Amino acid sequence: MRWLGLFPFLLSLPTLAGQATIPPLPATPKHPVVDEYHGVAITDNYRWLEDGKSPEVIAWTEAENQHSRALLDALPVHAAIGRFLKQLDEASSPSFYDLALCGETLFAMNWQPQKQQPMLVTLASPDDLASKHVVVDTTELDPSNSTAIQFFVPSVDCSKVAVSLAQGGTESGTVRVYDVATGQALPDVVPRVTALGGGSLAWDTDNRGFYYTRYPHEGERPPADMNFYVQLYFHKLGTPTSEDHYVLGKDFPRIAEVTLSASRDGRYLLATVENGDGGEYEHFLRGTDGQWTRITEFSDGIKSVALGDDALYMLSRDHAPRGKLLRLELVTPTVKNAKTIVPESQAVIDDFRFSLAGAEPSFVPTRTRLYVTELLGGPSEIRIFDHEGHDLGTVPSEAVSTITQILPLRGDEILFGNVSYVDPMAWFRYAPASKKVSITAVRESSPVSREDVEVVREFAPSADGTKVPVSIFRRKGTALDGRNPAILTGYGGFGISQTPDFDPRIRPWLDAGGVLAIASLRGGGEFGEAWHQMGMLTHKQNVFNDFIASGEHLIKAGYTNPSKLGIEGGSNGGLLMGAVLTQRPDLFRAVVSVAGLYDMLRSETTENGQYNTTEYGSVKDPDEFKALYQYSPYHHVRDGVRYPSILFLVGENDPRVDPWHTRKFAAALQATGPKNPVLVISFSNAGHGSIGSAEDQQISMSTYRWEFLYDQLGVPWVTPAISKQTGAVGSGRP
């Protein structure tokens, strides 16, 4: 074994690198560009790598790709992991998600084993899977399997459904309308409904048209503004889009992100407008008279609003960081008339469920009840109130689990999705009259066993003493001798919580003696808005301190040691990877970073980076510039430092994080002194992570991630037993 610095450099990659069959890394010249920010001169050596359309950058990307793929494809574990993931895919049970009830018809996204993309289907009942009817199968529309459904919205009479479709991970969506009974497309094609700021749609009550988010069309705005200034328009079926008329939005912020929702009868329409990605919202209501009223402003602290039959229910964090619920009568729809019905308590009221249709409230009004998702530091449960806010108890659900969605049925009955670390996703019916929960036929089963797996929650003290929750997966009886290979992951941003989920892919890792840890970092929403704010803007360093503390805890608690500790993250979690590997390169052995942000000084020169400024801050502000510069990973790469082994994965069509972040950061790391491998794998037909990717492409991405960690952490491959699931059958839960 060859020793380099603190860690043994595993033989696999160096040995292969010496073979003539491995293409070399490309030459990466420095072309310095000097920028000045608030009197500080900063040199950027790799600005030229930002131009993804230049022949030089295309050639550089391809050379990096060939080098990295050749190394990883030749590893002995490559074929075994790819084969396991493929078998796991083929043996898995079908899954249903993003359910929507229209009349008596249940709409859902449906993933089927061996299908390259999910389908839009209908069911007559959640207890009748045989009634499944395929409405839209994008693999029939696009043989390349690169077209994905972004969202769907049924018409009020349930006879038609509007579907947004995007290609190649671009997230630039065009809406088509389909006849539900036949699956045939109507002639209507509405472009640019979705872009960087998302997109949404709501039908009119007569089913003859819909309101939708519309981004500028060619010639309406300068090229730099084409993915901003979203407005609401109305499209009448059977007419050209040139006749669509403006409805609302001329005064929306440049970086507005808009979500539409309608009351069950379609008479009321709600527009939720977010000011970028920082969590500030305003709301507009269209009443039965067709007039729009602004009911909240950004400064009101209202996070989310749900439409009831006769009132609006609003989650406020104004002087209530854990959340309080307000009720506002529809006849007087201004926030000053709202009444507090559920005051702030120790529990955190979850604000949103992120679905294909956008951010939806995590609380649901029914005829006489209000079902509210409460966060318990990550796990969640459903608490029941009446419309006056009286506490009626909780809906029985699995302990330490996630409520994925609440769907109102007749009267006060609901369907709800429930998943945990040890049990796969299942849908349950709750009847308030009997207070009984019953499992439906819409449930998944696992092709691998988890009976010998346990999940424990421990706490890591961060630099300022904050206790950071860390959920740790391990096989029962795992020895705490400091010798276990471990993977630590986290996110820490945008108020997004790390919640329990079921992932059968970790079975081989646990069988090989591995440990998996998930840190709930500040910047997320696990403990309310204060927890989020402590990890955003000028407080972002807290997120990195929390993650470093979590890694140190795994070592001190005897789970692992630095030579066996790998870390992984994507998107904002990719920024996390870049920050901690430059701040504590001694703490980790291997890093997998997917679609991350690394040059935080130039991030806002990208389109989506401008949406992110309300979360990260802007270099235009002196204090925010100082904070950004202090942690920007690209600006803290130092010569002579031995960094961990690193694998970057990136999609060339990524609209959220421009791939140049990865190109520049990788180039800077590759230019340092004696080093562990720094590999870059790009996917030409992919977007942000796995969003919109076909199943085979997702398997390829996962194969590279897992094999890199297995190789660099010296973990033997252990093939687990896989049990083929032929249908969505029970998981054994009551």
Would you kindly provide a written description of the structure presented here, covering whatever features stand out?
This protein has 734 residues and is an alpha+beta fold. Helix content is 18%, strand content 34%. It contains twelve helices and 43 strands. The strands form eleven sheets. An eight-stranded mixed β-sheet has the order 36-37-39-38-40-41-42-43, sandwiched between helices. Strands 25, 28, 29, 30 and 31 form a five-stranded antiparallel β-sheet that branches. A four-stranded antiparallel β-sheet has the order 5-6-7-8. Strand 15 and strand 16 (245-248) form a beta hairpin. The longest helix is centred in the first third of the chain and has 19 residues, at 55-73. It is globular and about 70 Å long. The relative contact order is 0.12.
